[in-house]
């Protein structure tokens, strides 16, 4: 595993390690969760396929090009992940109430995520994010004009 990890890093890939055996790659599992909700939004008549694509392409995906969901929420609430969970957790609980086996965001799992995001200055990182988003918006705008 170490040899493969070094090889992947040498060719500028990002190896992801699962911590135990599970069906599907991490990326496939994340994509599956997003696809389940995308299909549900269309099936329930809440959005068209085009609007679901636009929400991802022009919304979440813009941030997720250079940062993951945990860093995104850490920077989207003044007090970081804990603040995000306090502010928006109840709404996400209601949104996800129909999902079997939905994970409770409190307790050890939130502690783990909060701990993983320590060690950087949130203001500096927010400025970095905003600069990246502005550059990406310019790039995407130039691409659409071509």
TrEMBL record:
Residues covered by the 3-hydroxyacyl-CoA dehydrogenase C-terminal domain: 24-85
Pfam annotation, one family: 3HCDH
InterPro entries named in the record: 3-OHacyl-CoA_DH_CS, 3HC_DH_C, 6-PGluconate_DH-like_C_sf, 6PGD_dom2
One of the GO biological process terms: fatty acid metabolic process
A GO molecular-function descriptor: L-gulonate 3-dehydrogenase activity
Protein family: Belongs to the 3-hydroxyacyl-CoA dehydrogenase family.
Family matches, as PANTHER family: 3-HYDROXYACYL-COA DEHYDROGENASE FAMILY PROTEIN, LAMBDA-CRYSTALLIN HOMOLOG
The protein's name in its UniProt record: 3-hydroxyacyl-CoA dehydrogenase-like protein
């Amino acid at each position: 595993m170490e040899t493969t990890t070094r090889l992947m890093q040498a060719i500028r890939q990002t190896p992801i390690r699962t911590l135990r055996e599970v069906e599907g790659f991490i990326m496939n599992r994340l994509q599956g969760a997003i696809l389940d909700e995308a299909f549900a939004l269309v099936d329930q008549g809440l959005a068209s396929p085009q609007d679901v694509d636009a929400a991802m392409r022009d919304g979440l995906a813009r941030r997720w090009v250079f940062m993951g969901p945990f860093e995104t929420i850490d920077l989207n609430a003044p007090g970081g992940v804990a603040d995000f969970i306090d502010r928006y957790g109840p709404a996400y609980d209601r949104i996800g109430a129909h999902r079997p086996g939905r994970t409770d965001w409190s307790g050890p799992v939130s502690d783990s995520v909060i701990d993983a995001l320590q060690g950087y200055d949130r203001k500096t990182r927010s400025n970095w994010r905003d600069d990246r988003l502005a550059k990406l918006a310019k790039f995407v705008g130039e691409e659409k004009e071509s």
